Amino acid sequence: MPADDTPPHDGTARDGSGRDGAAGPAAPGATLDEPAGVWEGDESQESTAGEPVAPEPPPRSRAGRNLPAAIGVGVGLGALIVVTLFVYRPSFGFVVGAAALYGTWELAQALRTVSIRLTLTPLLVGGAALLAAAWLKDTNGLVIAALVTLLGIVIWRVGDGAHGYTRDAAASAFVLLYVPVLAAFAVLLAHPDDGAARVLALVATVVCSDTGGYATGVLFGRHPLAPVVSKAKTWEGFAGSVLACSAAGVLFLTLTFHQAWWQGLLFGLAVVVTATLGDLGESMVKRDLGIKDMGRLLPGHGGVMDRLDSLLPCAAVGYLLLSLFAPV
């Protein structure tokens, strides 16, 4: 993949050297960038004789995002989800499948920078099959398809010899569980008659976590939440996520599913903790690989996996909690 010069969606801050403290070389997914909100050409834009004036960079937020692009992409993705859910619900499964398979490919390219080669053919074919099985045969189909895909992974890798077998097979199994299997829970959420409401409740609550944390973190953030993993996340931002998610959970569970307020509160708290851990988990993977973003497909966000990092684990948690609190 070509080098990426777009900012990470989480707005990771950098020190004066332009690095964030991550070990290892910069990978094809992205280059290590400048401090949040600071551009390389900020020292002077004045031209000297015969020298052109450098063009103005796109506007950035204090957290380092290209905010207009990020908002535009976010609105577009939200509209796509709403349209597929309410116009022809099975098409939502195709959207989930496309995102999951592209995210799998992004991870494969990122891992190649540290000489880990995923067994992409069984991963992509099996990933598509288990998403279809989740829609057609519910959790039983998901489990069977996942096991068959896992078996295909370990057998397929034999053809490339013994060198690196354990490393590559283990990484492929991890990616299978991390992306297609977790994405399948979004398909399971959408399958019941009220599936559109279930998916929107989950996605809106996750968005509240991201938006609430981003806004309060930019305005009031002072104390790092996990400085070893991400310098951009603060306890103040996490508090904003907790408040926003709790309110969203209570509103959705009481008004949409007619459940008790405390169930909505538990739902919101579970989502915010899961979303934060999912985001930090992917940040740790990127830091380990020495990259900034998983890709550059989504302006203002990075790659597809930079958007799925919190949604994937939340899909599983949301499915389990809604099945418990509001059974079909």
TrEMBL record:
Composition-biased stretches (Basic and acidic residues): 1-18
Assigned EC number: 2.7.7.41
Region (Disordered): 1-65
Membrane topology (UniProt): Multi-pass membrane protein
Catalytic activity: a 1,2-diacyl-sn-glycero-3-phosphate + CTP + H(+) = a CDP-1,2-diacyl-sn-glycerol + diphosphate
Keyword Transport part of the UniProt annotation: no
Chain ranges passing through the membrane: 67-88, 118-136, 142-159, 171-190, 196-216, 237-255, 261-280
Family statement: Belongs to the CDS family.
Subcellular location: Cell membrane
Lineage: Bacteria, Bacillati, Actinomycetota, Actinomycetes, Jatrophihabitantales
GO biological-process terms attached to the record: CDP-diacylglycerol biosynthetic process
This protein's record includes keyword Cell membrane: yes
GO MF term set: phosphatidate cytidylyltransferase activity
Full protein name: Phosphatidate cytidylyltransferase
Biased composition (Low complexity): 20-31
Keywords: Cell membrane, Lipid biosynthesis, Lipid metabolism, Membrane, Nucleotidyltransferase, Phospholipid biosynthesis, Phospholipid metabolism, Transferase, Transmembrane, Transmembrane helix
Chief location: membrane
Metabolic or biological pathway: Phospholipid metabolism; CDP-diacylglycerol biosynthesis; CDP-diacylglycerol from sn-glycerol 3-phosphate: step 3/3; Lipid metabolism
A GO CC term assigned to this protein in UniProt: plasma membrane
